[in-house]
Amino acid sequence: MKPLFLPANQPAGRFYAGGRQISDFRGTGPAASHEPEDWVGSATSVFGHEPVGLTVLPDGRLLRDAIDANPVDWLGAEHVAAFGSDPALLVKLLDAGQRLPVHAHPDVPFAAEHLGLAHGKTEAWVVLEPARVHLGFTRDVDVDELTGWVRAQDTDAMLGAMHVLDLDAGDAVLVPAGLPHAIGQGAFVVELQEPTDLSILLEWSGFEIDGAADGHLGLGFDVALAAVDRRGWTAEEIARLRGATAASSGDLLPEAAAFFRVERWTGARELDAGLAVLVVVAGDGVLVAGGESSPLRRGQTVLLPAIVGRVALEGAGLQVVVCRPPRP
To answer: Which of 70, 177, 184, 199 is the most buried (most CB within 10 A)?
Structure first.
């Protein structure tokens, strides 16, 4: 196995619009209007639409099937001992051509009880282009009030009860499962998450989806809304979710370690062995693995199987974001 340089993997027909940022970043052709996500090294499918979202390898196999057939080489023996053949990670590029709707994701206990899944959807954003986001409620919201907002599609009330953050390029933000949020128009982020596609829509008016039918994971809103964190978060608590800034290197979100790990490095560097998704966010350089060198440039995404071992990065202006599953 060698490092795999991955092309874009953009599920079509998503319910919100994308922009030009993924295509500009990757240097590919014109962007499709409703392909706002690039699922990188994905063994996860779009909820209810398998195999959409799954990465196809150059030999035509699904990455998921290749991992199942040879998990130790892909994931490493320690990872397999802890998690089996589950990569325990999904990485995306997300380009918000419009503000995303207010939504939330279930946590592990909710997903296990109601959906029979091992993962919820805690996520994190490494910001590549500045954006305004709404994140968490500023006050306690009781279930009847939340239900009323959802039923009436009272977007003004929802957004008015949420914290607003203006994020800068380079910021890293942890979004715990359950926390309601809405990424603003113009955002471009590297998104790490637990490997599911589970979203509970609180808002859908004006978006290309029938949220009343498809916004509750097939559970009905009486059940699904129990997954939403309705607690009022203080401004200080929300600020603590905003971990690293553009000046930060190394581990950007140590508090996310139970779900995933994300590092940022600039210039020459050796990377430890283990499954990783490498996103080249700036500059040019070289990747050296197994005695072979490959050029790197901004916009590339590289899947590093565990068996590749340690790899070296060369290039003074090279900047990468390295995404990894939780440590075994």
So the answer is: 177
